[in-house]
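Could someone model adenosine-5'-diphosphate with this protein?
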Amino acid sequence: MIQFEHVSKSVGSKTVLTDIDLVIPTGELVVLAGPSGCGKTTTLKMINRLIAPTKGRVLVDDRDVASRPVLALRQGMGYVTQHTGLFEHLTVRENLALPAQLAHWDAPAIERRLAQLAEQFSLPKGGFFDSYPYQLSAVEKQRVCIARAFVADPAVLLMDDPFAALEPGERSRMQDEFVTMQALSRKTVVFITSQIEEAIKIADRLCIMEKGHVLQYDKPEEILKNPRDGFVREFVGRNRIFTNPEEICARDIMLTRPATTHPEVPMLKGMEKMRLAKVDSLLVVDEDGYFLGIVRAEHVHRCDNKEEAIKSVMREARVTVRPDETVPQLLAKIRRYRVNNIPVVEENRLLGLITNSSIVTILSQQSINLEEVEGL
Amino acid sequence: MNLLSFLTSVGFWPALAQQILLILLTVVLALAVGLPLGFASYKYHALTPPLIGLVNLLQTLPAFAVLGLFMALGLQNFTTSLLLAFLYTVLPVIFGTEKGLRRIGRPPIDAALGMGMTGWQVLYRVLLPLASPQILPGVRRAVITAVGTTTLATLHGGGLGVLILDGIYAGDAQRVLAGAVPACLLVLAANGGMALLHRRFVPAPLRRKEQREVFIKK
Ligand SMILES: Nc1ncnc2c1ncn2[C@@H]1O[C@H](COP(=O)(O)OP(=O)(O)O)[C@@H](O)[C@H]1O
Ligand SMILES: [Mg+2]
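Reply:
Sure, complex below.
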């Protein structure tokens, strides 16, 4: 548990934080959201003592951080800095190994841990670990940054706007992955964002800040339903597109890069891909991006000769949607065809995939009654 | 006449030895003072303008004039030669260090501290390697300046400068060359040596072209 007790911070004559009181329960994902310059980074950095409060105390597990040995305190927390804080002069492997080295792990243990993380964070195989940060795409950098925060398996994660540099599609995908990972690992996470959509999507608890004050700290549904004042209402109101399910269409919530495969690929490889991507089906797409059908793990398993091409067990999709179909339409199709996910297709080309969970996530954030929607 | 015995006859070897000793001492001194000052002026930004201003001012004084000044004051020894050369070599070290550290920015430093590195670990595992693409050219310029200035500074003591000066007085072109040619070769050798050091000390990913352009300007 992390507690802020009447924490204030001023730098010279400037007041950066005023009387912050927060309780961040163990195992929860708390998002600090607010416009740029409202004091989110300053708040976060007080937890790992990169910044000291002018007044008040910060407690981690009931002990004032100021009284803890600073190196041990920091080594027990994963930290992703604002902008990527990867070390440009070190390879991916060296970057990832550093936190473990600082904690005096031996080389084989570090190597095992890196292999584990590569799997968990879908880091590419091959020479990836020997490449340098400048050779990576924005997404890859971000994955490495987050993986680095996980290396020493800390109980607390501090993440300062980690997805800011990503394209909307990639960003949304990373958010999904992060939520899944968090659900599995149950770390205490303090996550900063200036995007309210992101905040609502991932937060267990949401803290809205402005000008060094905490305006409202509550479950996201609660904040959406009962914004405490005009600023909060306006801030969460930017999320207007997501307030009415009829205004959300497939394009807004689809995964933009679902796991796909080519029809001529041998089933063995297809299975390997499903295993790596942790999915039970692949969308079959030809070299021009035309959507052909779906191959499911169960169909591959039933087939004796796994050297054969995927197209021999591929099925046509039971149902597809256009990108402009709305959430109620999607829900209706999901119910009618009893599917877990629906490919989004336009002019026979695959654009993305709607998963059951992405819709449920959206709806639960909206605190919309599912029964109500069904009646639409 | 045999070249070697000629060189010996004009006192070339002790002159060369003394010159090299002077160069090494100058560079060591410039590093010992320049690196910490560079770090200080990075850490305390307010320090940068006066520091750079002062050293710049001293440096704009023509070396030859300062040498004359020292001579007029009756200061003609190894120490004054060293001081003179130091004056002209320390600035690029300070400047390169400051500039290299400055462009690192907050995120890697926060990341390093945040993962629990000590101050020293941050310095030698993160700051110095990341600043090295600017520090090394600074040192390189310092070394080259050191070779040139020490040639001048040794006019009145031992060193290659003496050969040149004596040669000019005596109207002995060969003797002038015995000082001048090795002095030039020393510069070339220093330049080449520093290029090697650059490759050795600057991490590969920081040696890419676009980064090199940054520090060619000044
Ligand atoms: N060292 C500092 N000196 C002066 N002002 C600072 C300092 N650090 C932060 N601030 C100010 O404090 C405010 C909050 O900064 P920060 O915590 O980085 O905000 P956020 O992360 O929400 O964008 C900003 O207005 C910033 O200008
Ligand atoms: Mg910030």
